[in-house]
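Continuing from the previous page...

OK, I double-checked the sequence for Acyl-protein thioesterase 1 against my notes and this is the correct one:
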Amino acid sequence: MCGNNMSAPLPAIVPAARKATAAVIFLHGLGDTGHGWAEAFAGIRIPHVKYICPHAPTMPVSLNMRMSMPSWFDIYGLSPDADEDETGIKRASENIKALIEQEVKNGIPSHRIILGGFSQASANSVNKDMHVLQCHGDADPLVPFVFGSQTAEKMKSLINPANVTFKSYRGLPHSSCPEEMVDMKRFIEKQLPPISDE
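Thanks. Re-ran it with the corrected sequence; updated structure tokens here:
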């Protein structure tokens, strides 16, 4: 998906059960693929929503001793003051924009597309009217809970604070849980309701 790296296969897709009038594009975390998330979304499927779970290209990741793995961009460190791979983030952003543009060409209006992600993956464009659901386990050993809280507060300073929902999950490590998937389904249903001609 990223740049000109052709190592990333086509996205895993959960098609809408009927005509797709909305889409969710969801990016996996470091070292993962879109397949697991596609399976998770199939479990909370909404009939008029198409789920697109792209796969990151395989690249060396500095954080993991330059081992090659699926990654949207390089990660130099996990501390708040670590350098960031701005070029890689911009490249990933452009590729996600291309996915959105493709769905618009397929007939789904941009306001009926939700962008989401796990861990490394996150939306990197902000619209002050957008709605955000941010979920975080309070036992996450990889991305400390305080980082999630700080991110939610930062989002509230960038967009309408009433549009930001931060949900925490007791005892959840760096993963997802059924309660979180139900919360995601409710968020998607609220943001992407069926339209009258369905």
